[in-house]
Each structure stands twice: as structure tokens, then as C-alpha cells.
Amino acid sequence: MTWNDDAAYLALRARDARFDGQLFVGVASTGIYCRPICRVRTPRRENCKFFESAARAEAAGFRPCLKCRPELAPAGPAWSVMDASRTLARQAAHWLDEQLAQQVTVSVAGWAGALGITDRHLRRIFTAEHGVTPQQYLQTRRLLLAKQLLTDTHLPMTDVASASGFGSVRRFNAAFLAHHRLAPGQLRRSTRDVDGPPMRAVRLGWRPPYDVDALMRFLEQRAIPGVEWVDRDRREVRRTVRLHGREGEAVGWVAVRFDPQEACVRLDLSPALERWSPSVVHRLRRWLDLDAVPAVIDSALEDLACPGMRLPGAIDPFELAVRAVLGQQVTVAAARTLASRLVAAFGEPLVSPWAEVDRVFPAPAVLEALTPSQWGSLGITRQRAAAIQALARSWPHLLALAAQPQAAALWIEALQSLPGIGAWTAHYIAMRALGWPDAFPPGDVAVLKAVRRLSGATRWADAALYGERWSPWRSYAVIRLWAAPQAAEMHAAATLSEVAR
């Protein structure tokens, strides 16, 4: 978005949360940059300089505000309607965020090669779009992540440095001091002095509107007992998590509570996952679709009046994929029953603060090793068991594809090559596991019924043609069509229209 400074100042004066994460203001008199929702006294217009990203503000010499905390702002969208170079630059920034969350070594040259362009061209379009180089962008993201970990967790300084992507505490201290003009230890001490002892809860912002109730209903219908528990009255979700990374594997629990007044979720996580905070936060933002830009999406779907409805993702993509296979040709409730049996028999026990959350979904290796008699004892057919075991064997390959350009298309192709997984299942998995915004699962009977009311379409080909008007946000359209009163019952009764092959 290209900002007119006068318009940006009006958004700042209104403290309009819709622009959170898309607009930052640097104040010349203090050398600090803030989010547009910051509650400090509004600075004078002549002292304000506006930026489209935190990285640009830091490149201009401003340091982040300790009150509104720019690291809590929603991230920019990876997908939008723009020219190819801008789309590529946005996706490159999204890829850098993914690499940081997974704590892997970043190679811009490798990413450029995968795209079929030169390293120089990628850097050029990235700088033109974001106003900073890829390394400057990554450095800002690392430092803002470190700032959040210092403020919100008990992690030792060495773990903060490692989790935020710095090879040593010395490099971390030097970079933090150079950019934020105070040492990491000073920030942690000042936070304790002002707000009391550091909390384990991490705050993550979103852009309003956000239909929390719709998301909670969606998750509650599909929650697997023992793994996930939804409290709609408290607007809270608790669940177990399995993580993989360069340091091995970790299991633990997370709890998220929605705070609509503050436009944020509060994340609490088990001590075993604190060192994995970047990965947890990254997965959670995708799971709850916190980085969506509802103003853009809602305007594209104005004929589907459900403002603020988000695209539910998956904090555990493998669990979601298995759940999709179990859901073929059965009701949502029946799929949940099959998944519950699978977890009760082969899930890993976990101690959590709540009796309702005590199992971790089985790992791919566990499901791959099950015998036909073990599958049969759960009431899972031989065809579905074969599909799940093929999925488990292919999971490392699918994870590698997720880091590639056009990951959704690669996943759909790879998934459909597996026995028992057809086009609907592949599109559904890509839509939720990858957060792909433009899926339109072929042959969905509930979508066809809802589109028939809008256009009179009686065949899927006509419904798909009508759905082109919602691109590139067709996944959001599908979620809204499923929620339509006339289609919701049908969607709950038969999640898939395809026959497992």
C-alpha cells in the first residue's frame, strides 16, 4: 500500500486497528517508531514520518516503542492482487519469515534459484517493494522476535539469541544494541520494573474485524478429544502440539484466549516449548489466520456477507491431513470419532494443566508402523489405513515441498499421487495446512448447493466458473459458503463428495 502522509496521520489520530501491521509512524522528536494503535499522546504532524513496515522504520534509524510493541503487530499478507514482481517480493518476505520460524539457515540465493531468477533480480525487486534488502528485513524480524521473547518469556539470554536466529550471544547483543540503542538485559530489567515479572503469555495481534465466534464453532466441531479442547464461553482453545526442528522434536501444550477488546490473542505455552517459541508463534498465526487483511478480503467477497470470517489453518499439518482422510465419505462427527479412537489407542500421553488435554496426536512413524489388525480394531477401513500410511511415508517429502515456491500446487500434485487421496482431499489439506487462500475443493456438494442459490448453477463446472469471481480469496469464500445456513447441515453431514480410490 502506498501511503498519503495526510491520510496516514488521520489513521494514526483515529488509532484505527485496521491499519495495524501495514503502517508504522516514526517520531522525529523521540527517535521511536510506533504502531497506529499506540495509546501514547499523538505526536505533532511535522514530527511524523510514515513507513509501510517495521524494517523500513528501523532502516531509517528509529527504534521500536516499548509501549505498543511493534513486534506484536499482524504481519503483512503474503498473497494479494498486485503485479508479478510485487507478489514475488511479498512471497519472498513470507518465505524469510518461514525460515526464521523454523530456525533454519537462510539462503536468498537458493530461494532465487528455486524461483528460476537470479539472486540480483530477487534482491532488486525485494528492495523496491520493501525499501530494505532481504538481510535488513530478516535482521529486523530477528530483533523484533528477540524483543518479544525478552519481554514475554523466562528464556535465558542464550536461548533468546538462538531462537531468534543469532549464532552467538555476542552477535545478538551487538545487533540489539546497535538497532534498539539498549542492551537486551536493560530491556528485560526495564520491563520487569514497569510491568512486574515477565510472563510466559505472549500477545499476538490481529486486524479487526475478526469473527471469533465463527472460528470457535469451526474448531469445536472438529476438536479431537484429548488433543484439543474449545471453550466458546471463555473464547479459549487448549491443545497439545508436536514440533520438529533442527534441535530434534518437542511436545507440549498451548492455550490461546481471544481478547476482542485488545484485538489480540494471548498465548500461553508449556515450559517445554518456550525454546520453540518462534515456531509455535508462526504456526499459531497461520492456524488462527491472524495476518489476514479483512478489508481486502471482505471487499472481494461482498456478495458473501460474513465480515471478519477467517480461514482456519492447522497448528499440526500432519494431524489435519490424517483427519481429512478419515473424513472421506463420512460426517464431521464420524470423522471426529475415528480420530478420537486413533488418538486414544496410539497417541502419546502428555501431562497438562487440564484434564481435557492429555494426548499428543500420533507421529507419522507411529502410524506408518501400524498393522492391518490394529487399524481394523479402530473401525478404520483398509483403504483409509493405506492412504494414511502412504501419507505418513511421504510426510518428509511434503515438508520439503512446503518450503518451495508454489508449495500449494506441489502439495496438491504430490497428495493426489498417493493411494486413496483425491482432488477434494488434496485441495482441502493445502487450504488449511498451508493457509492457501485460493483453494476451491472440486466437487464439494455443500459449496455447490450454496452457489446454486447465488447463481442458479446446477453442475460443479458452472459453480467453479462462478467462483472465479472470488479469486484469489476462494478459500475464504468456501468457509463462508460452508457457514451458510442452507449449506452448513449438508457440509456437516458429508465432508467430501469424492470416493476414495
How is the secondary structure organized here?
Layout: H1 5-14, E1 24-27, E2 32-34, E3 48-51, H2 54-59, E4 63-64, H3 84-102, H4 108-115, H5 119-130, H6 134-152, H7 157-163, H8 169-180, H9 184-195, E5 202-205, H10 212-222, E6 228-231, E7 236-245, E8 248-259, E9 264-269, H11 277-287, H12 294-300, H13 317-326, H14 332-346, E10 348-349, E11 359-360, H15 364-368, H16 372-377, H17 382-402, H18 407-416, H19 423-433, H20 445-455, H21 460-467, H22 474-483, H23 485-493
Parallel strand pairs: 2-4
Antiparallel strand pairs: 1-2, 1-3, 5-9, 6-7, 7-8, 8-9, 10-11
Helix pairs in contact: 3-5, 3-6, 3-11, 4-5, 13-14, 13-17, 13-19, 17-18, 18-19, 20-21, 20-23
